[in-house]
Amino acid sequence: xxxxxxxxxxxxxxxxxxxxxxxxxxxxxxxxxxxxxxxxxxxxxxxxxxxxxxxxxxxxxxxxxxxxxxxxxxxxxxxxxxxxxxxxxxxxxxxxxxxxxxxxxxxxxxxxxxxxxxxxxxxxxxxxxxxxxxxxxxxxxxxxxxxxxxxxxxxxxxxxxxxxxxxxxxxxxxxxxxxxxxxxxxxxxxxxxxxxxxxxxxxxxxxxxxxxxxxxxxxxxxxxxxxxxxxxxxxxxxxxxx
Length: 242
Ligand SMILES: *Cc1c(COP(=O)(O)O)cnc(C)c1O
Prior knowledge:
Bound molecules: pyridoxal-5'-phosphate
Helix content: 40-55%
Order of helices and strands: HEHEHEHEHEEHEHEHEH
Radius of gyration: 17 Å
Distance between the termini: 18 Å
Structural class: alpha/beta
Number of helices: 9
Largest sheet: 9 strands, parallel
């Protein structure tokens, strides 16, 4: 299967999941996760119509993104999404090359981002990474069992408020990763819980929170049924990583 065949197949699965859940496929953004893949492969995906790309390592991105963007075959309007954990000392490298950060997981990182974005005269689109499943290995604001914990809600509501005061950040949504399960159906409660959190937050703050970044190769069909607006797909497009 070629990359363009894979992309067509992913679009078909997105369309089917939308049909099952009465949604419009145009409301789903496909982010092709090109981590560990060379720029030639990114250009192939661009030629097949993909506009959004996800990377998780800063050093790799600092090489690859300019290489792709300066290539004559690069499309105009390509967008880069940082999906990996962001270390404080690397925020300065992230700001110039990425449009959207999916992995903002502390006030400290957000403050630093805001400062650097102001200097760069740029607005950064931000997703707040949420650890909804409670897995210890996961990054993100801890909102495991938030519906049962007034304490966790209070802490995060305060963070949410603080982050909205920061200039040059456009906080557009929440992001999560489901644990790996043999049966992808088991991810459903995790995605439903993030969707419920988004609804509760937007109600309490009286703001629109447009995006839910959730769903990867194993589980994006489920994430879409539960309200994902952005799916982050690597292996189904580019094959296994070594
Ligand atoms: C690697 C990665 C993905 C893509 O995973 P696949 O299983 O290859 O689709 C999505 N989101 C994050 C945060 C990742 O690190």
